[in-house]
Design goal:
Layout: E1 7-10, E2 13-16, H1 17-23, H2 40-43, H3 49-63, H4 67-76, H5 81-89, E3 96-99, E4 106-109, H6 117-120, E5 131-138, H7 147-160, E6 165-171, H8 173-182, E7 186-190, E8 197-203, E9 208-216, E10 225-233, E11 236-244, H9 252-267, E12 274-280, H10 285-291, E13 298-299, H11 300-303, E14 314-315, E15 331-332, E16 335-340, E17 348-355, E18 372-378, H12 384-391, E19 401-405
Parallel strand pairs: 1-19, 4-19, 5-6, 11-12
Antiparallel strand pairs: 1-2, 3-4, 5-18, 6-8, 7-8, 9-10, 10-11, 12-16, 13-16, 14-15, 17-18
Helix pairs in contact: 3-4, 3-5, 4-5, 7-8
Length: 408
């Protein structure tokens, strides 16, 4: 297994998993506890070798580390899996940051100790799912009215729909922090941390992070950019483009230029990778007609049957979060999802629907002034022979790095 640069702080001393690996014995020679530090009564509580190995594998699967690192934590905590995972993940919420002060940039992911609940729920598995759920949603963090209640409602929708990949727009620092507290089962990759920004969420137990880049829009007056994330679900490689294009009719020219950048990025995705370009595009149909939809790109609303009840995502006739003067109630398809299939195709959209259409309990507000988009994707199931063959090939590993301050 390829080691990642995970930095640990234990009683003020820093170790890397690579250093730990050099100091630890091989997994098959597990020594459950340092006998010099224990007495015979404590030895009676040490699991057998087979149980120790199982605990090591579970710890490594949840934390994304290797078996030597797992052994290090478990031995110090008498092979208590929950305590060990808590120790690894324990710290304040923080999401994903990029450190550039070393020889190479390092991605730092902040975890929450509540991730342990996934173990008890039996959610951790190495078997890739044969379907996954995708949400894109402008969650309107700029409106302070009932913001915390609305953000909590967003988190409830994400979890109740069992989403694996979530693209959010109009996230603000306070809602980011709150969502990280509410959704520790997701890795957060953010497009910025100032004012308002995009965030891409990947469910830890199904969708694995590989890399990301942020592409600034040179023509923006509103701090907009394109958040590009590479990930994989089993053998399915994904290129996820999350964006919030320039707003209002006055900025149509800039929006069309930004749209073109997004289309160019998604069409240049390698042929073996499925590309998804989505978000609050603020798009008017006439703007798309002017630019044209590139060959090989599919609008998921159209591909899933063009149901009229799911067409408009900014619908002031139904959504009352934004009170507009006058009798005219705009209904627009601002939020869109475009798919550039891989070759051969590996994704099949089965369902296109809207989320966030119920008012938040105890308020007159909806979770956002936008409806969210929910898509169910089906992943083809390989035969056992092809699965065996694929297991010998190199599948991208989760290359996130974690830097945690551990409780002593």
């Amino acid at each position: 297994m390829k080691l990642v640069n995970i930095y640990l702080v234990v009683s003020g001393n820093s170790f890397s998993c690579a250093n730990i690996n050099n100091k630890m014995s091989e997994p098959e020679n597990i020594v459950c506890l340092d006998k010099e530090d224990t007495d015979e009564e404590e030895d009676d509580d040490i699991p057998d070798v087979a149980t120790c190995q199982k605990l090591v594998e579970e710890f490594a699967a949840v934390t994304g580390t290797d078996e030597a690192c797992a052994q290090f934590y478990l031995q110090d905590r008498k092979w208590d899996l929950e305590r060990s995972v808590n120790a690894f993940f324990e710290a304040s919420s923080g999401g994903v940051k990029v450190l550039t002060d070393g020889e190479e940039p390092e991605l730092v992911v902040t975890f929450d100790s509540k991730m342990v609940s996934s173990l008890k729920a039996g959610q951790v598995t190495e078997e890739a799912p044969n379907n996954f759920r995708f949400i894109t949603w402008n969650i309107d963090g700029l409106d302070n009215l009932n913001l915390k209640k609305r953000t909590k409602a967003v988190a409830k929708v994400i979890e109740s729909e069992k989403a694996d990949i979530v693209l959010l727009q109009e996230v603000v620092p306070s809602t980011l922090s709150y969502l990280q507290d509410l959704l520790p089962q997701f890795v957060f990759i953010v497009g910025d941390t100032m004012e308002y920004f995009t965030a891409t969420l990947l469910r830890r137990t199904t969708t694995h992070y590989d890399d990301h880049t942020i592409i600034p829009f040179a023509n923006t007056s509103m701090g907009r950019n394109l958040l590009s994330v590479q990930a994989h679900i089993g053998d399915i490689k994904l290129h996820l483009l999350n964006t919030h294009l320039e707003s209002t009719a006055e900025f149509s020219k800039q929006r069309r230029e930004q749209l073109k950048i997004g289309f160019n990025r998604i069409t240049s995705t390698p042929s073996g990778v499925s590309g998804i370009f989505a978000g609050d595009l603020n798009l008017r149909d006439k703007e798309l007609r002017a630019e044209g939809l590139p060959a090989g790109i599919f609008d998921m609303w159209e591909a899933c049957g063009q149901r009229q009840e799911c067409k408009f995502t900014w619908d002031t006739a139904r959504n009352t979060n934004k009170e507009l003067s006058g009798s005219f109630k705009p209904r627009l398809r601002f939020d869109r999802v475009y798919l550039r299939p891989s070759d051969p195709p590996t994704l099949n959209a089965q369902h296109f629907g809207l989320v966030g259409i119920q008012r938040v309990t105890g308020t007159q507000s909806f979770p956002s002034d936008h409806w969210g988009i929910l898509i169910h994707f089906k992943v083809p199931v390989k035969s056992s022979e092809s699965s065996d063959a694929s297991s010998s090939t190199s599948v991208p590993s989760t290359s996130t790095y974690a830097k945690r301050k551990l409780s002593s």
